[in-house]
Amino acid sequence: MKRVEKVAIVGLGLIGGSLGMAFTQGNVVEQVVGIDRDRNSLELGLATQSIHHGTQDLEQGVRGADLVILAVPLGQIVPVAREIKPFLAPGSIVTDVGSTKVDIVKNLEELFYPQIHYVGGHPMAGSERAGIEAADRYLFENAVYLLTPTERTDRQALEIVTALIEKTGARVKTVSPEEHDLIVAAVSHLPHVIAAALVNTVGGLADEYPDILTLAAGGFRDTTRIAGSNPELWRDICLANAEKIIKMIRHFRHWLDQFEAVMAAGDKDTLTGIFRQAQEIRS
């Protein structure tokens, strides 16, 4: 297997910074270069041992890299990929951490194939906090990290990315881009939509009941924690995966309708059954 000596991480936010920490502090590769437009992020990356070197220059950062990780916001992945392509050596590997995959995989395979090997990726780990300030070396420990190979994916490149990601403590699973987008619509994107809707529902009662949010206990806070995430980031994710998220919203609405119907009918047994079904699936 080809030895990876230089990894370039474009975007030192929560995910990029955490990957850098895992690679540098775990002595996974010899050189991790961080690339970010924000000088403060680069300085913090050096101070927290997230990177060995930092630069604001894309060409300087990616040139000579064996692996480039695009850890920029979803809407920037394809434009940044186009910008770095002239500086990448044939046979180098590019991966990303985007929250949707169908369109990104299609675009990046068309851009890079066959000279540069692209492997789609998405760590199923994160936080409502953003930026390298929130980075954590152990963010990926025992987390699932999805890779989305296709028929065009170079097998050795897939093995290399898998091996590196596993050294962060993550559990790598491979799915198709289409499967990925449906799965994350259900287990990641829909929960964010629900959390935002719940907060807005309760917030809409604040004029009539000013203390309502201050009286909310742990259950409400736990359920709505992710509503504190970056609004622009989640706008882009929802629009990029709209078809599948809408499909999940319709499934969810079915269950809300079920709750409404059985409560209106006073049907104790059916209501208990719905809660019990959820309890068993959850366990």
From TrEMBL:
Keywords assigned by UniProt, alphabetized: Amino-acid biosynthesis, Aromatic amino acid biosynthesis, NAD, Oxidoreductase, Tyrosine biosynthesis
Species for this entry: Calderihabitans maritimus
Protein name as catalogued: Prephenate dehydrogenase
Family from the record: Belongs to the prephenate/arogenate dehydrogenase family.
Boundaries of every Prephenate/arogenate dehydrogenase domain copy: 5-283
The keyword Nucleus is assigned to this record: no
GO biological process: tyrosine biosynthetic process
Catalysed reactions listed for this entry: prephenate + NAD(+) = 3-(4-hydroxyphenyl)pyruvate + CO2 + NADH
Pathway the protein contributes to: Amino-acid biosynthesis; L-tyrosine biosynthesis; (4-hydroxyphenyl)pyruvate from prephenate (NAD(+) route): step 1/1
MF terms (GO), sorted A to Z: NAD+ binding; prephenate dehydrogenase (NAD+) activity; prephenate dehydrogenase (NADP+) activity
